[in-house]
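Memo to structure team: turn this sequence into structure tokens by end of day. - J.P.
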Amino acid sequence: MAITAHPDFDDTPLFDENNDGDPANDGADWHSHWVVLTEDAACGAGLKVRDVSPGVDLLPDTAPMLPIALDSPGMSPVLTGHIAKITVPLSNSKPVSFDAVTAELQVNVEGKTPLLCVSGVHDIASGDLSLPGVVTSEK
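Reply from structure team:
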């Protein structure tokens, strides 16, 4: 799960994050994405968002139809000071572990691969990607 804002384009085709009636102008507002990361030495931090083939690989309707494994699920983050909170609906009760990472991503504007690289990692909450966080149910 990524929480991001980028004023250069809107990649949440089905959602109107700023509630102005135009779902095509929301890139600068904080929003969420599911992304699948994979290793790639061509990227500064050694990771990229995995390549896919739209029309060949199965993508949800909320995907922005880019050739990468990125989805725009419409879950809005709440940012308070240095805390980011996002509510994610779960359909089962299996424990899910996670870590928090602040990173920069770089889009290759020429359309070459890799299209979306992790270009730098600023901080890892655990220090070692040991996935110490646990998703909990709120009742």
